[in-house]
Amino acid sequence: MKFLHIIFHFEYSEDIEAILDEHGIQDFVRIPMVEGKDRDGKHYGNQVYPGNSSVVQAQVPEEKLESVLDDLKAFKDSKASHRHLQALVLPVERYLE
């Protein structure tokens, strides 16, 4: 089991959730609006360039991880506006069900 942490511009929430659904990952947490800094600079919700991001965190079985990451990479590479997507994979040492 791995912990997948995905950061992306909030307007792509449905796209990211669709990718997870395609891989049978039904349990996740979505933090709908976070503020932060990305490669284009500080976007703390300013109206000139709304920089609100969302975060999705999911537990992903190891056998599904590579295909999920491949689809996230394909999404990221498909348009310049998707380039801010970031995904981080962390080991899960313990968890409670």
Note down, in words, how this protein is organized.
- The chain has 97 residues and is of the alpha+beta class.
- The chain has a single domain, classed as Alpha-Beta Plaits (2-Layer Sandwich).
- The protein has two helices and six strands; from the N terminus they run βαββββαβ.
- The chain has a four-stranded antiparallel beta sheet with strand order 2-5-1-6. Strands 3-4 form a two-stranded antiparallel ribbon.
- A hairpin with a 2-residue loop joins strand 3 and strand 4.
- The longest helix is centred in the last third of the chain and has 17 residues.
- It starts with a strand and ends in a 6-residue tail after the last strand.
- The mean pLDDT is 88.
- First and last CA, distance: 13 Å
> Strand portion, in percent?
25-35%
Report the C-alpha radius of gyration, rounded. Answer: 14 Å
Instruction: Using the coordinates shown, work out and report the CATH topology.
Output: Alpha-Beta Plaits
What class, by secondary structure content? alpha+beta
Share of helix among residues? 25-40%
The shape, in one word, is globular
- The overall pLDDT average reads 88
In spatial order, strands of the major sheet run 2-5-1-6
Q: List low-pLDDT spans.
A: none
In CATH, the architecture is 2-Layer Sandwich
Number of strands: 6
Order of helices and strands: EHEEEEHE
